[in-house]
Amino acid sequence: MSQSKTAGPVPEDTKAEKEQEQRSPREIRLVMIGLVVTMLLAMLDNLIVGTAMPTIVGDLGGAEHLSWVVTAYTLATAASTPIWGKLGDLYGRKGTFLTSIVIFLVGSALSGLSQNMNELIGFRALQGLGAGGLMVGVMSIMGALVPPRDRGKYQGMFAAVMALATIGGPLVGGFITDHLSWHWTFYINLPLGVVALAVVVVTLKLPKVRNNARIDYLGAVLLTAGITSLVLITTWGGQQYAWGSKQILGLAALAAASLIAFCYVEQRVEEPMLPLSLFRNLNFTLVSVIGFIVGFVMFGSTVFLPLYQQIVQGASATNSGLLLMPMMFGMLVVSLVVGQVVTKTGKYRIFPIIGTVVMGAGMLLLSTMDTETSSLTSACWMIVLGAGMGFLMQITMLVAQNSVELKDMGVASSTATLFRTIGGSFGVALFGALFNNRVTETMKERAGDHPAAGGAMKDPGQMSPAALKQLPAPVQDAYHHAVANGMHTVFLWGAAVAVIAIAAAVFMREVPLRGTGKQDTPAEGSLEAAAI
To answer: Where are the alpha helices (DSSP H) in 146-180?
Structure first.
């Protein structure tokens, strides 16, 4: 069945394009301060809170519910991301962005006031609900303010924030926990959030949006059910429940049914939550695939690389954020350079190709690490991986936004963010299953008969350096080799997955970067216009 014509916002895209061109660099820079602070807020939170979790459990108790503190936040963030994007398109990006910041700050304050673990889990879900709109708001507002060709000048700021948050988050969390209290791991969001609110309220001027279209409530419910089921599968699978258990299979069935029903509904409503017509655009579909794989590789790597460095290379866990510095350095430098080149040339197609190849090469190099690999060598391979992701992190969002009209900027931004998030969940889950299986196999081969080896084989991914030191030397040696073998398997599979991204990048089209999105006519890069 054909879809009704989508009701567009007023004023139309053409007027917004003119306003985009008329904004001065000073106006844009002022708004960018608020956006950068908001992005820092979103990225720091989980990293800071993760460091404080042992202290929180010691104070509140409820260790058996510990995983839900993270899961509740992740679920709420992932499920609300596409909804925030659509609300911004329908009712105005500034209002929805400010609302998401307020919800995030209220959730942060209440989390800090929690008196027990159940309260903390509930308030973390509220915080995650707000967080779902932070990243989408940042990207869609930048898309509305800055013509695609000029965005490279600002992308470096966001890459720098990502690197700063990854490295500094655990350090800040450790400092707060040691010198203040765990409550301040949540309260620290409040001053940053107030600054972001004030800057955005004062500096951000966007055209008023008047749209009488009805919200696609059924689509929102079905999409939320599908996303929630997928995240729970990747969170629980192989951990709380076996992959073949009735719980995981039931969630898989629910995810499939919800997403199939969602696709059916979206083709029949006036204002779909996620217009499936966007996927008729070849470039949009391809960058969604690439974004999924970037999330898959990036989140999987950031989980398992520190484990290798701590267990095999003996690195300290105290400054865990510093362990990823080489990867963040490669990502930051390349992202800065790519942004400037895109701004000057207006060309971008070559970068996804280079990025996916370099990312795959980085994973392949990391798969060669063993018990004898030096810290310098592993750091070099991490720089290669980070460089590959630096080619891709901002370009995927740029291409997604350049593939749509301005009125769909929020949906495009939220979809790109969602694919990266879901990819990250699947990456951690698959890498975890591969790692655990390989470690268990190696331990059985090298120390299966030793009575002290049972603990390492029971939950191989949770063996801490301190606990490992308590084991006999032969078991320690076996575990070092087991972890190295596990990393070999994980990164080899990561390189194989990167091949899919390479294929997607090769088929991408070079569509001219314009002030906003495209007009309603089929353009280069769409399936209607691209001759394959």
So the answer is: 152-179
* DSSP-assigned letter for residue 407: G
C-alpha–C-alpha distance, residues 484 and 184, integer Å: 37
Q: Map residue 526 onto helix, strand or coil.
A: strand
- DSSP label at residue 376: H
Topology of domain 278-516, CATH: Growth Hormone; Chain: A; (1.20.1250)
Cα gap 16→30, rounded to integer Å: 19
- The radius of gyration of the chain from alpha carbons, rounded to an integer in Å, stands at 23
Instruction: Give me the chain's average pLDDT, please.
Output: 80
Residue 199 is which amino acid? V
340-375: per-residue pLDDT in tens?
888 888 888 899 999 999 999 999 999 999 888 888
Over the range 46-85, which residues count as b (16 or more CB within 10 Å of their CB) and which as e?
bbbbbbbbebbbeebeeeebbebbbbbbbbbbbbbbbbbb
d(CA 236, CA 75): 12
What tokens does 313 get? 């290379």
Q: How far is it, in rounded angstroms, from Cα 5 to Cα 181?
A: 54
89 vs 102, 141, 212, CA distance in Å? 19, 10, 12
Architecture of domain 1-208+269-273: Up-down Bundle (1.20)
The per-residue pLDDT for 64 is 62
Q: Do domains 1-208+269-273 and 278-516 have the same CATH topology?
A: yes
Residue 252 contacts residue 201 (beta carbons within 8 Å):
no
CB contact burial 178-216 (16+ within 10 A = b; e otherwise): eeeebbbbbbbbbebbeebbebbeebbebbebeeebeeb
For helices 409-447 and 93-112, give the axis angle rounded to 10 degrees: 40
Local structure of residue 361 (DSSP, 8 states): H
pLDDT(460) > 50: yes
In the predicted structure, residue 297 carries a pLDDT above the cut 60: yes
Q: Is the pLDDT of residue 258 over 50?
A: yes
pTM of the model: 0.80
The residues with which 281 forms a beta bridge, in sequence order, are 526
Residue 401 to residue 102: CA distance in whole angstroms: 26
> What is the domain partition of the chain in residue ranges?
1-208+269-273, 278-516
CB 155 within 8 A of CB 35: no
Paired tokens of 446: 């090298």
Beta strand ranges found along 233-364 (DSSP E): none
